[in-house]
Design brief:
- This protein is 44% helix and 9% strand.
- The longest helix is centred in the middle third of the chain and has 23 residues, at 289-311.
- It is of the alpha+beta class.
- The two termini are 57 Å apart.
- The protein folds into 4 domains: 1-157, no CATH class; 160-205 and 262-318 and 336-441, no CATH class; 452-574, no CATH class; 590-629, no CATH class.
Length: 675
């Protein structure tokens, strides 16, 4: 009645590349991050061992395939042929047979690439070899593997003063650091070193790499990527483009494995990128490695400026914000407020870098800023062969307003009521005077960005222009796209003091642009008629004359038409308040804090201290405390527990290296023997 099932074990195939994977690729990456953060100052010379780890190559293949196809590829879904090709690519890299920028011969091809290169005609081969082509799939895999290997090494060494092209840091972090740490500075210097991001001499890049990495194979790979010429299309001077008649373009259906293009709202927001974030380095065939290499080269400038910060720091006992080396600045809950002190002020500078743009704040006379500028120009000339002058590094006073990341740094005088507790416990209130650092979004820059995107024209009286890119879209889709754009704008201006005002202005421009679009699309002649039918937020359907016909609501109830969401933030009261949450001193990204905490807990002494604190606070019982202590002892000692009891040596003395003279250690020994 019941059949028997016989389990047949599959024979082990020694030629299967999957057998080379001993552990998960993510765990290998995690171990690299832990090792480098545990000892960030060591010279690394054994990276070839990591290049041999097939787990990293599989992980790189998954990441590049996700970028290529728009969908994540699980490890179980990778075909055996793809694994064999990936193994061939790894072996070619290890045997120094890999060539950057290949056009016809590949070790591994993209899952989307179905081209048979052996049967191509001479004309197509000539076009491939002489025109600009996207980076080969195998090149991006090698770039990803090199990034996995090099990023943890340099992230543990990079200065805390740089914020671009680094995980966990962005433009918002820069604005929060400025609001917290740049409140007391009077003179500011802005420098544009973005020409370094366009490219540097190969010798300088390799020299900067070899300060910390001495692995010949990795250095040779990056050197070959920098020196191999990139083939680009040649444009003949005087050649005129043929005028072709514009044809009707049908809607193109995407293939199954083809990623969707960026939506319109995202393209529009990318057009809002500030000047400091527009340029992304691209050096030779380095691809995603270019940003890391640029930070490696500019890290020398960061270290030089950190030395200048220590050298030029001259504290004054009469200054209430910087009178000690610990940099205690006034009230930590309101660090942007600078109380007025006597004529004798501390002299101090601070520095921040975002990509190729630097911002330096100077507290002291203008002569200090001029001296520092001269030294900075000499350093850039000697180190980067970059010719700067006084005009390229201007010195400006805070009262004129300093533009950085499309935000204006300025100062205003305030008279707050200061309350503090006297020695006898008496609360004293007195009127204070000081200055407040204000970080406001630039309205002029916002208008300039909208004009660049063809959303308005005019400066003094900006007039919205119709957004014809969305002419053939439905009203529901158009409103949804613009709502996403406004949501990103609200997040971008999150830390601006005038967040409500600037977001309300953006909403006015978008609403006026859509009203003109709908007026042209539905032949309503004016914006006033559009607002009358579609309401202030354009949430009513404009096809009906009154916007309240029962037919539309019945269709909406049956799910036969799309619901139309009104535009957000049509009134200033709907815009959220500015985020003034305090920024902690010595801030680090979440992943770095987790790494440092993990490294601390791996230390046996730190582990025992944590156990003692938990025991004192009553969070664990004495029995659990003994169990944790014994587990920590087993983990960090090669002696067996029986040998330990036979020697009658306290566990704490073995862990802490003491002689067991303290009374607490004797009590713990008795508890352990009793257990």
């Amino acid at each position: 009645m019941y059949g028997t099932y016989t389990f047949v074990r599959q024979a082990h195939d020694p030629n299967d590349p999957a057998t080379l994977m001993k552990e998960d690729g993510v765990s290998v990456c995690s171990q690299m991050w832990i090792e480098n953060f545990r000892d960030p100052n060591r010279t690394v010379n054994n990276l070839t061992n990591y290049l041999r780890r097939f787990e990293l190559w599989v992980l790189a293949y998954q990441k590049v395939s996700a970028d290529e196809t728009g969908a994540y590829v699980p490890r179980s879904s990778i075909t055996r042929s793809a694994m064999e090709d990936l193994l061939a690519l790894r072996n070619a890299v290890l045997d120094c047979r890999f060539k950057w920028g290949a056009r016809l011969e590949f070790y591994i091809k993209s899952p989307k690439d179905k081209t048979d290169y052996e049967s191509l005609s001479k004309r197509k081969i000539r076009a491939i070899m002489t025109t600009t082509q996207p980076s080969p799939f195998q090149d991006r895999i090698v770039q990803e593997v090199l990034l996995m290997v090099l990023e943890p090494i340099y992230e543990s060494r990079f200065s805390q003063k740089s914020f671009a092209f680094r995980p966990g840091r962005n433009a918002h972090t820069v604005l929060r650091v400025i609001r917290r740490s740049f409140a007391g500075y009077l003179w500011y210097m802005k420098g544009d070193l973005s020409t370094i991001l366009d490219g540097m001499k190969v010798g300088m890049v390799i020299g900067a790499l070899m300060r910390d990495v001495r692995d010949k194979m990795v250095i040779d790979l990056i050197k070959a990527a920098l020196t191999t010429p990139v083939i680009t299309s040649r444009v003949i001077d005087g050649e005129k483009k043929k005028k072709t008649k514009r044809k009707y373009q049908k809607k193109r259906v995407l293939a199954e494995d083809e990623p969707k293009p960026d939506p319109y709202w995202l393209e529009t927001f990318f057009g809002f990128a500030p000047e400091e974030a527009e340029l992304l380095p691209s050096w030779g065939h380095c691809g995603i490695l270019s940003a890391l290499l640029a930070n490696v080269c500019l890290d020398e400038l960061d270290r030089w400026m950190e030395g200048k910060i220590k050298e030029l720091y001259k504290p004054s006992s009469n200054d209430v914000i910087w009178n000690s080396p610990e940099e205690n600045q006034g009230n930590t809950s309101w660090p942007e407020f600078v109380p007025t002190s006597g004529p004798d002020k501390s002299r101090k500078i601070d520095y921040i870098r975002y990509g190729g743009h630097i911002l330096i704040g100077v507290r002291g006379p203008r002569a200090d800023a001029a001296t520092l500028r001269k030294q900075l120009i000499e350093f850039c000339d000697q180190k980067y062969m970059l010719k700067l002058d006084n005009e390229s590094v201007p010195i400006e006073h805070i009262t004129k307003g300093i533009m950085f990341l499309d935000h204006v740094l300025c100062r205003r005088v305030v008279y707050p009521t200061l309350r503090y507790t006297a020695s006898g416990g008496k609360i004293i209130s007195e009127k204070g005077v000081g200055t407040l650092l204000s970080v406001t979004a630039s309205l002029k820059q916002c208008i300039r960005q909208f004009r660049k995107l063809n959303f308005l024209k005019g400066d003094r009286d900006p007039d919205p222009q119709p957004c014809f890119r969305m002419f053939h879209a439905t009203q529901a889709h158009t409103n949804a796209q613009m709502n996403k754009f406004l949501s990103t704008i609200v997040e971008w201006y999150r830390y601006a003091d005038n967040r409500k005002k600037i977001v309300n202005f953006c909403s006015y421009i978008i609403r006026g642009s859509l009203a003109k679009l709908y007026a042209a699309k539905y032949k309503l002649r004016s914006r006033a008629k559009v607002y009358k039918i579609g309401a202030r937020n354009l949430s009513r359907p404009l096809k009906e004359k009154k916007g309240q016909s029962p037919e539309y609501h019945n269709l909406l109830r049956m799910g036969l038409v799309e619901s139309i969401d009104g535009l957000q933030y049509t009134r200033m009261s709907l815009v959220p308040e500015t985020d003034y949450s305090p920024f902690p001193a010595g801030w680090r990204p979440d992943h770095e804090r987790a790494l440092l905490e993990y490294i601390k807990l791996e230390d046996s002494r730190m582990m025992e201290k944590q156990c003692e604190v938990l025991k004192e606070q009553g969070l664990i019982s004495p029995q659990d405390y003994i169990s944790m202590l014994v587990w920590n002892y087993k983990k960090n000692s090669s002696i067996t527990l029986a040998d330990h009891f036979a020697s009658k040596t306290p566990i704490t003395s073995l862990l802490l290296g003491s002689n067991g003279e303290e009374e607490e250690e004797e009590e713990e020994e008795e508890q352990i023997h009793a257990a």
